[in-house]
Amino acid sequence: MHDFLLQLPKVELHLHIEGSLEPELMFELAKRNGIELPYATVDEAKAAYEFDDLQGFLNLYFQGMNVLRTEQDFYDLAMDYFQRARREGVVHIDMHFDPQAHLQRGIPLEVVMAGLLRAKQEAEATLDLSVGMIMAFLRDRPAEEALGVLENAAPYWKFLDAIGLDSAERDNPPLKFQALFARAKELGLVRVAHAGEEGPAEYIAEALDLLDVQRIDHGVRCLESDSVVKRLRERQIVLTVCPLSNVSLKVVDNLRDHPLPQLLKENLKVTISSDDPAYFGGGLLTNHVACAEAFGWDMEIFRMLNRNAIEEAFVDESRRQELLQRLELA
Ligand code: HPA
Ligand SMILES: [Zn+2]
């Protein structure tokens, strides 16, 4: 099964590029930029990656990205993940990035965009890897700030596939960002949002009703509401489920208790992603292997999950057809 999963052309719809920062690269960038880290060694950093909940993770996630200062740092961050993912048989990644987390530290949007776009262009030209760009907004920051960032990003609108909504979910309902998402829609941008990870099923309904999203990131708590499940099924809204993330952040106690099999039974449009692979124990292949072990899924299920992801990925139609064909031959 491992060999099948390795060569299967896999598509990742939910990946925070800042969450792909491996401790090894963190140390390298800290040295390059003269920054002191709170860890003495790579092993010490890895040992600190034990989380009680989403907020516990976010604290280390924002701390870790402090080493990202220059255009080259953002390029190196993305290229490091793209190369690793490609070696694991990933053929497309829709990448979230968090401009506010960098602006707050005095890193201009131009620096972030130049580095990430250069890595995307190089990956697409040399790695047989396509990359989508999702500008994500931090839901625990003010809505007015997010609107300002979106307006200031005007030179980059043409490079964006979508906007997203991430960070601390509880008490930051989709409603807070209705104006931001309306503006993104006016600009012709697709919308996606994290919902139903730590927040309740109602946040999923709100994201659909008030933000007009095309995808729900996570969405696992939809099972707490029959009516939300019914809506997701009827519209075949894609869920970007992140199994090892949910275990790390204690959304579930262990993978065997994960609602993934139930989500499939409900005929929802499920996909698998890694979320923050440097913090949650591995990338897309590791998530696939873990699911094979926990749920005993066969090859057809993994083909279906990646067919779902290809159908929803931010790619042009010729790339989509190519990926669908490669999937069926795998
Ligand atoms: O798993 C996540 N959830 C919410 N926000 C995030 N930002 C990075 N990773 C995550
Ligand atoms: Zn996420």
TrEMBL record:
<feature type="binding site">
    <location>
        <position position="14"/>
    </location>
    <ligand>
        <name>Zn(2+)</name>
    </ligand>
</feature>
<dbReference type="GO" id="GO:0008270">
    <property type="term" value="F:zinc ion binding"/>
</dbReference>
<feature type="binding site">
    <location>
        <position position="194"/>
    </location>
    <ligand>
        <name>Zn(2+)</name>
    </ligand>
</feature>
<dbReference type="GO" id="GO:0005829">
    <property type="term" value="C:cytosol"/>
</dbReference>
<dbReference type="GO" id="GO:0009117">
    <property type="term" value="P:nucleotide metabolic process"/>
</dbReference>
<keyword id="KW-0862">Zinc</keyword>
<keyword id="KW-0546">Nucleotide metabolism</keyword>
<comment type="similarity">
    <text>Belongs to the metallo-dependent hydrolases superfamily. Adenosine and AMP deaminases family. Adenine deaminase type 2 subfamily.</text>
</comment>
<protein>
    <recommendedName>
        <fullName>Adenine deaminase</fullName>
        <ecNumber>3.5.4.2</ecNumber>
    </recommendedName>
</protein>
<dbReference type="GO" id="GO:0000034">
    <property type="term" value="F:adenine deaminase activity"/>
</dbReference>
<dbReference type="GO" id="GO:0006146">
    <property type="term" value="P:adenine catabolic process"/>
</dbReference>
<dbReference type="GO" id="GO:0043103">
    <property type="term" value="P:hypoxanthine salvage"/>
</dbReference>
<dbReference type="Pfam" id="PF00962">
    <property type="entry name" value="A_deaminase"/>
</dbReference>
<dbReference type="InterPro" id="IPR028892">
    <property type="entry name" value="ADE"/>
</dbReference>
<keyword id="KW-0479">Metal-binding</keyword>
<keyword id="KW-0378">Hydrolase</keyword>
<feature type="domain" description="Adenosine deaminase">
    <location>
        <begin position="9"/>
        <end position="327"/>
    </location>
</feature>
<feature type="binding site">
    <location>
        <position position="16"/>
    </location>
    <ligand>
        <name>Zn(2+)</name>
    </ligand>
</feature>
<dbReference type="InterPro" id="IPR001365">
    <property type="entry name" value="A_deaminase_dom"/>
</dbReference>
<feature type="binding site">
    <location>
        <position position="276"/>
    </location>
    <ligand>
        <name>substrate</name>
    </ligand>
</feature>
<feature type="binding site">
    <location>
        <position position="275"/>
    </location>
    <ligand>
        <name>Zn(2+)</name>
    </ligand>
</feature>
<dbReference type="InterPro" id="IPR032466">
    <property type="entry name" value="Metal_Hydrolase"/>
</dbReference>
<feature type="active site" description="Proton donor">
    <location>
        <position position="197"/>
    </location>
</feature>
<comment type="function">
    <text>Catalyzes the hydrolytic deamination of adenine to hypoxanthine. Plays an important role in the purine salvage pathway and in nitrogen catabolism.</text>
</comment>
<feature type="site" description="Important for catalytic activity">
    <location>
        <position position="218"/>
    </location>
</feature>
<dbReference type="InterPro" id="IPR006330">
    <property type="entry name" value="Ado/ade_deaminase"/>
</dbReference>
